[in-house]
């Protein structure tokens, strides 16, 4: 049995300790916003927050989150930063196919949280370089993150 906090609520799952968190979220807890992309932590589609920091859930064994706080895209979108990012995403017309978007948003929230001052387009692109978008909307993503930061301020 693995106990942790998910989007502010205590949860318990009875799975093997080495089960990737991604599959626990999708299959056991039926939160399908977190996507499977590559399975080797290279694309970012599976990004969630572990104790507030972006983390790849496809390679994270569920045992590693015992007693910890996990936030998924479903939880992020209920927060002020999540809502600011969503508004900026729509305004900048970021989404194309949409598959990478939950991971992009989770990473963007981490970038905003860790920012020491106003972000430039180049800083955003650099800090989000580990998240892949097969549609190539990187410039739109960077603009949305910069705009979301301005809206939050």
From TrEMBL:
Oxidoreductase keyword on record: yes
Annotated 2Fe-2S ferredoxin-type domain residues: 1-76
Pfam families associated with the record: Fer2, Fer2_2
One GO molecular-function entry: metal ion binding
Keyword list, A-Z: 2Fe-2S, Iron, Iron-sulfur, Metal-binding, Oxidoreductase
Protein name, entry field: Isoquinoline 1-oxidoreductase alpha subunit
